[in-house]
Amino acid sequence: MTTEPHDAAVFIGRFQPFHLGHAALLRAALEAAPLCVVVIGSAFQARTPKNPFSWEERAEMFRLALPADQRSRLRFLPVRDYYNEERWTQRVRTGVHALLAEAGIETPRITLVGHFKDATSDYLRGFPGWTLQSVERSGPVDATALRDAYFGCGGDNLDATLAALVDQAPPSTRAMLRAWAALPQYATLTAEWRFIQDYREAWSKVPYPPVFVTVDALVRCGDEVLLIRRGEAPGKGLFALPGGFIDPRETAWQSALRELKEETRLALLDSAMRMALKANVVFDHPDRSQRGRTITHAFYFDLGERERPEVQPGDDAARVEWIPIERLAALEDQFHDDHFHMLDHFLRLTDD
Asked: Where is the signal peptide (predicted)?
């Protein structure tokens, strides 16, 4: 039986950063087809210790790892985190076919190249019609451990740290990490990495992994929404919805109103807020927060076409602003955790 040749291979990942395990899968993809579409996930997130490198920087890691004659065989598709597998899968499929159509391939035969690491790899089964090529793991390479080593050294003994990664990352990636450490964001993310490590360590002695419960408030007035700039780590300086942890003796509703008042000084009666409530949605994706498993109850309020209430920052909010809804899509990479995606859920900001 003769196997039909493939027009393109698809390789999906976050590549934070590109390492030798990725390189092995990339070789398999390039052997399987003349073109390889690299789908770069978490593409428009703010820089964090988990997502330090922009999608453009990660694409450059791919290019630098290949000889010049193979670079032209790559196409890059940046995809945001939708925290909705059906939506994400459709965006990947649509984007891949659009890229291949630009290359003159209208009805492509596609092979999806990947590795089944754990339950997080189940997305590989979500593309019927594409041939799935499962590749065995080439070695114990882990991007999380790479990032921990990189930020954990804090710039001290950086050369020694990178030298210790010789069996984890290709020379081109290690060279890029060395250069990237001279940029201002390295020090910022190192400080945030330490905060998150300390935070997790403080909860490491409890009998069971903690599950945190929070609340967030999306307040709309006319064509603007109320946002804060975070004043503390994690996400210091990033946009966020007003919110925080639920108190033991409060309902989610009570906590949401309290956090809203503490962070924005929004002075509206509870009865007015009850009238303005349009929706209450739970966001519970396991990866939505770096601090650990965090489930939030998000309340959407629409104050209608009235004069904007006066606000001012309070509690741990450095600033509070009314932002036009039409500007939000362009600010996607300036939001803390999944707060842009909560806005997207309620306001439908992105066009698939």
From this structure: none
